[in-house]
Amino acid sequence: MRLTCWRTVTWGHLPGRASLLLTDSHTPPLLGRDMGNLLKVLTCTDLEQEPNFFLDFENAQPTDAEREVWEQVDVVLKDAKGVLDELQAYKGAGQEIREAIQNPSDEALQDQAWAAVVPSVGKLKKFYEFSQRLEAALHSLLRALTSVTYDPTQHLEREQALAKQFAEILHFTLRFDELKMTNPAIQNDFSYYRRTLSRMRINNVPAEGENEVNNELANRISLFYADATPMLKTLSDGTTKFVSENKNLPIENTTDCLSTMAMVCKVMLETPEYRSRFSSEETVSFCLRVMVGVIILYDHVHPVGAFAKSSKIDMKGCIKVLKDQPPNSVEGLLNALRYTTKHLNDESTNKTIKSMLQ
User: Fold this and answer.
1) 3-class secondary-structure state, position 19
2) Nearest to 308 by CA among 353, 356, 260
3) Less CB within 10 Å around the terminal CB: N or C of the chain?
């Protein structure tokens, strides 16, 4: 029996994946993890294989080497669920604001609207401040996962607990932005707060609650919520900042980390053997969100983006994985690729990719 290395041409949606074919006519081709393990054992240098390992998003635990960074980030992630719960329950002061605007001379209604909007703004301030903590946690993870100690695949395979935390940050980010986009009360409340505060200053009326959100902070918060996807912008800007502040670290260390995670998610989602190891369907949704999140970060940080021919992300394959899911479960993620990426509409983007996202 003879082993032959070859590039598959039959898996159109998986360009560049390497296969090993056993040419003994009695032995079927090897697939899944067996194929991946053989590829790791047998050196075949001309193969551009996709990262083929299982990233345990459900059960990964920190090793001693990961623990210090893991514990720092864990403190932030423990608060993430509470932020999402508060945002999901956010009702705003819409009714009180409408009544105050419709009856501008009724001081009682003005007071009621102000009393209702101040605690809402306190929550919005809390969400904004959490975005700053999230960016700091992202920097800690990027420092660990892009160091020269290992290549990107080795980092993700060896430091699965940190990779899982990175994934949890991305999952939180896309979920936060989905909730924010469907809640107009957020921007309405903050706009009313700022207008009222300005009017109170002009009239020299003491503004109870002004100490909580001063003018400078109000400007920053206003810019944050003005973006359609504020948490994603925080992460994109934070990743770009990380690259610019670490000039001794090749940008490829960061972009390769992002592209490798995107491809690991894609392979896990499209490989039945891997997907069957998820104990919950929620992990499928988690994995899809993470894949889209790292694609968007890659597209913002990489000089030519995720859609260029030279991209290390198989965009056709990733979009196909998304479109293979129930439509109502992924429309928000497809929209994230359509509207929050930076390079989709570049002339260099393959027309097939553009049509897949139309």
Assistant:
1) strand
2) 353
3) C
Q: Which residue has the tokens 């083929």?
A: 52
Query: In whole angstroms, what is the distance from residue 52 CA to residue 54 CA?
Result: 7
In Å, how far from its chain's centre is CA 345? 20
Q: How far apart are CA 286 and CA 176, in angstroms?
A: 13
Q: Which residue, among 199, 208, 18, has the nearest Cα to 121 in the 3D structure?
A: 208
Tell me which of 16 and 350 has the higher pLDDT. Answer: 350
CA distances from 24 to 28, 42, 50, 202 (A): 8, 18, 25, 87
Contact 88, 179 (CB under 8 A): yes
Task: Report the sign of the C-alpha dihedral through residues 346, 264, 76, 244, in that order.
Answer: negative
Determine the Cα–Cα distance for residues 189 and 117; give it in Å rounded to an integer. 6
Question: 208: burial class by Cβ within 10 Å (0-12, 13-18, 19+)?
Answer: exposed
Contact 97, 110 (CB under 8 A): no
Q: Say which DSSP state 208 is in.
A: T
Question: How far is 79 from 83, CA to CA, in rounded Å?
Answer: 6
What does the DSSP assignment read for 121-155?
Answer: HHHHHHHHHHHHHHHHHHHHHHHHHTSTTS-HHHH
- pLDDT given for residue 346 in this prediction: 87
The pTM of this model reads 0.79
Report the C-alpha gap between 311 and 260 in whole angstroms: 11
CB 252 within 8 A of CB 246: no
Lowest mean pLDDT segment, chosen from 44-53, 103-112, 144-153, 188-197: 44-53
